[in-house]
Amino acid sequence: MKSDNSSAQTGHLYLVGVGPGDPELMTYKAVRILSDAKVWAVPTAREKGLSSAQQIAEQMVPDTGRTILSLCFPMKKVFLGQDTDAQLLSAWRQSADEVIRHLDRGSDVAFPTLGDATLYSTAFYLLAMIQEQRPQIPVTVVPGITAMAACAASQASPLALGDDVLAVVPAAFEDDRLRSILTTLDAVVLMKVHKRLDVLIDLLEELGLVDCAVLIERSGMPEERVYTDIRQARGCTLHYFSTMVIRKKKVQVSNERNALTA
User: Fold this and answer.
1) Which of 55, 133, 177, 254 registers the highest number of CB atoms within 10 A of its CB?
2) What value does the CA radius of gyration of the chain take, rounded to a whole number of Å?
3) Phi, psi of 87 (to 5 degrees)
């Protein structure tokens, strides 16, 4: 694989969004780059765990003897602007060192990541560590289809329309920001709702928004499940890949005056 704008001594790093789960939603560019890359760095949530991104990508890009670097990214909250957890820093640094060894040998490395690499992806924690040590490493980010786009598409619904103001929020928020967002904005996507679903349902019921919400579990995957009445999911054990879309307004196709006189 030939890296654009990279030297003969340095490999090229590719951060590749593979979409939300359906391998047919991978872009042509993602498939091409992953096909050419001889080294994949794949994220896992635990040591020797499986990589969902790898499993999706391999359905479109069969293994032809590539090197797989299994990188563990512990599932802990990251608060930007604050000191990062020591365990996270250690894991990120270890992953970066492993990738750098291959880049320094001139090998291109592809990092497949779920959804889009620029939206709540571990890819940029890895990149920050690599750039700290090798700021000259050439990097290409390949965008992918996000889970929220797939969720809206599965319901034939827009994410935002007209003068809607859209917010994308990690549901792990445990302060008044979430209440304020739900109260003031027109459309809200709540990511990673699996651990706080019952609390979220209570809040949405209090705000009169429960009927505006749809919950999609494992969007784009064979196990996809949709809750158009989110109250039916109360008490359920949901998969990590669970997203809630809340829309307050619908398209008005006739004016009230016309409707009354029709």
Assistant:
1) 55
2) 21
3) -65, -40
Pick the closest to residue 244 from 202, 179, 184, 200 (CA basis).
Answer: 200
Query: Degrees (nearest 5) of the Cα angle 135, 139, 145?
Result: 140
Residue pLDDT tens, the chain, 262 long: 444 444 458 999 999 999 998 999 999 999 999 999 999 999 988 777 789 999 999 999 988 889 999 999 888 888 888 888 899 999 999 999 999 999 999 999 999 999 999 999 999 999 999 999 999 999 999 999 999 999 999 889 999 999 999 999 987 666 678 889 999 999 999 998 888 899 999 999 999 999 999 999 988 788 889 999 999 999 888 888 899 999 998 887 877 655 443 3
All structural domains of the chain with their residue ranges: 13-145, 148-247
Instruction: Strands of the chain (E only): list them.
Output: 13-17, 39-44, 67-72, 109-113, 139-142, 166-170, 187-191, 213-217, 225-227, 242-247
Fold classification of 148-247 is 3.30.950
Q: C-alpha angle with apex 19: 17 to 23, nearest 5 degrees?
A: 115
Domain 13-145 coded CATH 3.40.1010.10: yes
User: What is the C-alpha separation between 117 and 76, in angstroms, rounded?
Assistant: 18
Opening angle at CA 224, ends 220 and 225, nearest 5: 140
